[in-house]
Design brief:
By secondary structure, this protein is mostly helical. Helix content is 42%, strand content 7%. It is built from 9 helices and 3 strands, in the order E-H-E-H-E-H-H-H-H-H-H-H. Strands 1-2-3 form a 3-stranded parallel beta sheet, with no helix packed on it.
Amino acid sequence: MLEGEGLRVRGSADSYVRAYAQFGVDEARDIAERASSRPLDGARRLFILAMPDMTTEAQNALLKTLEEPPADAMFFFIVPSPLTLLPTLLSRMQHLALASNHAQSIVDIRAFLASTPTLRIDMLKALLEKDEDTGRDMSGIITFLSSLERMIGERVGERGMREALLSVYRARKYAGDKGSHLKSLLEHVALLTPVVQYKNG
């Protein structure tokens, strides 16, 4: 798509393509610094950045860079949902919805929705386990919340589902912030979402 617009992505010194497990204020400052340098072999710098979430501090650190992009820089942020981004950051962006292959969640979403709140909280333990080297699997948590959002969204007209959807949005928004209490955010979703009855088959 970008190549058709005359933007070289592959093999260009002016293209910066990265996928992040976490995107915090240090990563945001690095991007802002890289964006300030002049293009080497083209008319503009191109940044394609994929991440499961972006901390509030990181978003605030990028505001000035996105408001007045230096050196004709162009940014593409690939996130699970625009709802995870601050309104002030979103106001500086155009939104494109991409087709998704819907990554598989560690937690069975249908079973989660059909379970009692007590069982749901027990199911969340798989998401909240910490690895000795890397800590919590944030991409697994965001995949769970994205999958849950889709399934709740299909039933948003039912009683209590709008509030449940808002709790999922809040959990996704704050999950990556420093000092956020992931266990409480996820438990809030588990407790607030009505139990969904599924017919067998």
